[in-house]
């Protein structure tokens, strides 16, 4: 989507139009609509035009929407409110149609800009990641290009590591004059909005609609899920930048205003999984403002790693914090891993409420210094390492 | 050569046999029999002695995987099974009437072993029933004076079981590296 959007006719695909209707629309496009659109196949399309009144139109639209996330213009005789699409009345009025196409172009333009923001947020790291980070032996359960990635999986290539852990060099964490680089304010990001939406929904026991820069998602209190068809390539840029307040609207909506849901609807996401991703994207190796880098960190519970995206070395870090509260800076030193990985994990854990005040006297895991050389014999370390390698292999 | 083993415990139907089978390098040796008592309500076949699986590591090293019988009347075997074990993988079924009672029972039964090694907990069938959530399992474990990794697990998925066992290993030694 890097071609200049305003310099070429919009590439559209048609849904729900029979041959005759398609011919009529083509004539309309070539004539009164001044060739603002050109018809292409689904895979080339930047946008879609949908006829809801055609045979099976509604069903075709629902099926199409589950695989196409781009902007859409839906047409019908009767007025319709269609989630995440622009409605135009039939028979088509040239002015209304051209306005709708203009809105589609604006949305595509916004997507382009967001894409550039995301690109800018992914800059090369200043130092090579630890060997384990290049390890491609685990199985990332991801679904690129199909809406939001399934959150479970392991971050395993450099591009992903940058996206989730940032690219702040280790020196910044150790240089007092660069401390400002290490903090962010979650409330100013999309990350901060999602818990607010949940709070509002639970307070009123009604779904909450969140509109943000032309994109919409819903929090559903009953299932504790988020309904969103915002693709990852849009969601991520929305999460990496602080949001201007006027661009956000949040309000409760009655149940009947929700888009219709299908069984196993791919637009439904776990709140925790989505918030986890949002926190990683927003944090990129930083921690919430006010975090004391020298205070020992402890977990009230492990992140649910079987369902959450696992950043590099996340298990080691969680194990250390679980067994022996350790400050952020000390964690990097003791585990000899990049600070940004530790800070990113901390921020994600914080977002999910897993960081707890340290009370070293209570519920200590039996034993001793978690990393002391004598805590596990050399022979046992060898077998544990071999077993770990085996478990990380895909099969 | 030292014998290394990991113990899988939990109530009937929690997925012990399946969990072992997805990470074992050999076909699981199981002693399933048709259930003839109240177990039948939850599972037509159940493990009456134990399950056995094996992970073959580099060189001649082996890790034995033992699944304890879910039925409490076999608990006389548990002490023998755990001897020399690396740690305990406890699987709990979220659709059971009182999974916290199960947790208390198994933690109590294996307490000495847990104190000497480590514990991880996998909660199965959360797709069938969301509640109680993991935070409540964490809280209940806290009342037993313990902290341990607790994950949602589908025992049929190798990745889930592998993560569970990895957490056990990192709990034993957070500084361990896969190439150690």
Brief overview:
The complex is a heterodimer of chains A (395) and B (180). Chain A has helices at residues 19-30, 57-65, 94-121, 158-165, 170-174, 190-204, 232-240, 271-283, 314-323, 328-335, 339-351, 378-392, and strands at residues 10-15, 37-39, 47-51, 72-76, 86-89, 153-154, 183-184, 208-212, 215-220, 225-228, 248-252, 268-270, 287-288, 298-299, 309-310, 355-356.
Q: Can you walk through the features of this model?
A:
- The complex is a heterodimer of chains A (395) and B (180).
- By secondary structure, chain A is of the alpha/beta class.
- Chain A is built from twelve helices and 16 strands.
- Chain A has helices spanning 19-30, 57-65, 94-121, 158-165, 170-174, 190-204, 232-240, 271-283, 314-323, 328-335, 339-351, 378-392; strands spanning 10-15, 37-39, 47-51, 72-76, 86-89, 153-154, 183-184, 208-212, 215-220, 225-228, 248-252, 268-270, 287-288, 298-299, 309-310, 355-356.
- In chain A, strands 2-1-3-4-5 form a five-stranded parallel β-sheet. In chain A, strands 11-8-9-10-12 form a five-stranded antiparallel β-sheet. Chain A has a two-stranded parallel ribbon with strand order 6-15.
- In chain A, strand 8 and strand 9 (215-220) form a beta hairpin.
- Chain A starts with 9 loop residues before the first strand and ends with a helix.
- Helices cover 31% and strands 24% of the residues of chain B.
- Chain B has helices spanning 16-23, 78-82, 99-109, 111-116, 134-143, 158-172; strands at residues 4-9, 32-34, 45-47, 51-56, 62-67, 85-93, 119-124, 150-153.
- With 180 residues, chain B is of the alpha/beta class.
- Chain B has a single domain (4-172), classed as Rossmann fold.
- In chain B, the strands form two sheets. Chain B has a six-stranded mixed β-sheet with strand order 4-5-1-6-7-8, sandwiched between helices. A two-stranded antiparallel ribbon of chain B has the order 2-3.
- In chain B, 51% of the residues are buried.
- In chain B, strand 4 and strand 5 form a beta hairpin.
- At the A-B interface, helix 9 and helix 12 of A face helix 5, strand 8 and helix 6 of B.
